[in-house]
Amino acid sequence: MRQLTGILLIALSAACFGTLAILGRFAYATGMDTFTVLFLRFSLAAVMMAVLLVARRESLPRGKILAQLIGMGALGYVGQSFMYLTAINYASAGLVALLLYLYPFFVLILSVIVYRERVTFLKVAALLLALFGTALTVDPQGGEAIGALMAIAAALIYSVYIIVGADVMKHVSPVQSSTVIFASAGAVFGTITFFNGAHFPTINSGWLTVAAIVMVATVIPVVAFLAGLERVGPTNAAMLSTLEPVVTVLLGASLLGENLSPTGLAGGALILVAVILLTRTEMRSPVQPEV
Q1: In whole angstroms, what is the distance from residue 181 CA to residue 45 CA?
Q2: DSSP state, residue 143
Q3: Which of 20, 134, 145, 160 could disulfide-pair with 217, CB 3.0 to 4.6 Å?
Q4: What is the pTM of this model?
């Protein structure tokens, strides 16, 4: 039951994260820029989680755990976001997205090194299926080498974020960890926005989009991911997260009228097969792996 709960939490997280690209498009259409969106996203999410933290009568972490959580927000989220957003200026969005989704491979390697995680044939097969499915779904094209390197750097940073998070979540609740992570990322993006100049929504519907980004694309998915990460381990969490581009493509087709090609559908089907394969493997496992 613990594994199934973790799998469902990661799937929920991936589905919610998959809305971010669509909501971001709506936000930009109301006059906002990237740094303002990220500042509002994380700072408002931090306020919400702080209220929940007080309501639950939980305290902020201290010492080493607090430092790790600050690093996850100020370095992990900020570094990954910066590399990703910069990379798309030098390479196609599809190529950047594909290279970002190399992170399950990096997480697997780091899990073996750091946590001595056991690698099974079925897990590797599911990982390869997920990567191939992602390649078909995002339709990668070319770009400059600097863009590809930045995308790979984003994947590496996110991999380290997951590995660190797998250990940190043994000591804190998702509410405690999310509060610190959001506040740290919000502080960094707030500083950038201060010097870069804020670009707030020019119409009222823009604030509704901000609210959706905060709740649907930030609070729910991050809390769900951290809660699921503690239950299924870093490699499984990373692999299950490959559901995200499937959701993004489906939403793009339904809400923005973007083309849904047979190749993209085939890629999404392969990702779903990989997720099902991984789920069946984990549910048959008699012992929850230590991470």
Answers
A1: 10
A2: B
A3: 20
A4: 0.83
